[in-house]
Design brief:
The chain is of the alpha/beta class. The protein folds into 2 domains: about 1-75, 2-Layer Sandwich (Enolase-like, domain 1), CATH 3.30.390; about 90-290, Enolase-like C-terminal domain (TIM Barrel, Alpha-Beta Barrel). Helix content is about 35%, strand content about 15%. It has helices at about 25-35, 45-50, 55-70, 75-80, 100-110, 125-135, 150-155, 200-205, 215-220, 220-235, 250-255, and strands at about 1-5, 10-15, 90, 95, 115-120, 140-145, 165-170, 190, 210-215, 240, 265, 285-290. The strands form 3 sheets. An 8-stranded parallel beta sheet has the order 4-5-6-7-8-9-10-11. It has a two-stranded antiparallel ribbon with strand order 1-2. A two-stranded antiparallel ribbon has the order 3-12. The longest helix has 18 residues, at about 55-70. The radius of gyration is 19 Å and the shape is globular.
Length: about 300
């Protein structure tokens, strides 16, 4: 957790390092320390934005937003020029990768969920997806392959997905080999995760993906996430709002954008045994309720 102080005011934030991109706790802490030494008053946000996108910049950017909100005695959503304050929102729930029987049982425990994310890894994935669909036939499924599928698997399985309740297929191919998606007929939306980071990614995902997964730890903060959401919406690209496994301190900034997302995948705090004191979420319903006592209070 990062905490910035300016006299009587403070701003705090949480980030999660991405091992996929070479980040570690040690490297992110070092980036945060170096980045904070460069911050100067009213130029702090611009100075933070000069950092590379990633977890360290996310922590600094979100802490600066809360610090500014407390100085101005205004909520962050107003300072950021958003249309309305965040409201309670239902997040999709996650079935982690496992055996077919394990995933069926995990899905049954989520009966009543509107949207379920199904994690797969290139193994017996069609059987896994079918088991989840049979367990919760009313749920819309988002299949997250995490770059694990081969082109052959994708071509064989993609036509079957609509009949198994799948609405979105997330990052089926490795980010370096996803050109195979160009012009590919599809009966489900295909979402970029590892292939999408920040505003610079739009040129490479155009005509390849139908949706982008915006995560503050990838984008490098709330500021960049707001920009990316607006750019996606103006470009006709759908938005999934995602997260890492984290406490509600990392989720609260993302909740400001949830009402504008097509899919909300912010169940990180619901995957923990305990969350921060003051969290107002309903684990059973998958309902996320913003809590000014955790972040963003003016």
């Amino acid at each position: 957790m990062l905490e910035l102080h300016d006299g009587p005011h403070s701003g705090h934030a949480e980030c999660v390092p991405y091992a996929r991109y070479g980040e570690s706790i040690e490297s992110v802490c070092a980036e945060i320390e170096a980045g904070c030494r460069r911050l100067h008053g009213t130029e702090a946000r611009a100075e933070a934005h000069a950092m590379p996108s990633g977890a360290a910049r996310n922590a600094i950017d979100c802490a600066l937003w809360e610090l500014e909100a407390k100085r101005a005695r205004q909520p962050v959503w107003q300072l950021a020029g958003l249309d309305a304050e965040p409201e309670p929102v239902r997040t999709m729930r996650t079935v982690s990768v496992g055996s077919v029987d394990e995933m069926r049982a995990a899905a049954l425990a989520l009966d009543g969920s509107r949207v379920i994310k199904v994690k797969v890894d290139g193994g017996p994935d069609l059987e896994r997806i079918e088991a989840v669909h049979q367990a919760v036939p009313t749920a819309s499924l988002v299949v997250d392959a995490n770059e694990a599928w081969s082109i052959e698997q994708m071509n064989a399985w993609l036509p079957r997905l609509p009949e198994l309740g799948v609405s979105v297929l997330e990052q089926p191919l490795h980010a370096g080999r996803d050109s195979a998606l160009d012009g590919l007929p599809r009966g489900v939306l295909i979402c970029a995760d590892e292939s999408f980071h920040d505003r610079q990614s739009f040129s490479s995902i155009a005509d390849r993906y139908d949706m982008v997964n915006i995560k503050l730890d990838k984008a490098g903060g709330l500021s960049e996430a707001i920009y990316c959401m607006r750019l996606a919406q103006s470009s006709g690209v759908q938005v999934m709002l995602g997260c890492m496994v984290s406490t509600s301190l990392a989720i609260e900034p993302a909740l400001l954008l949830a009402s504008g997302a097509d899919y909300v995948d912010l169940d990180g705090p619901l995957l923990l045994e305990t969350d921060r004191e003051g969290a107002l979420h309903d684990r059973g319903l998958g309902l996320l309720r913003p809590s000014p006592s955790i972040w963003g209070a003016s």
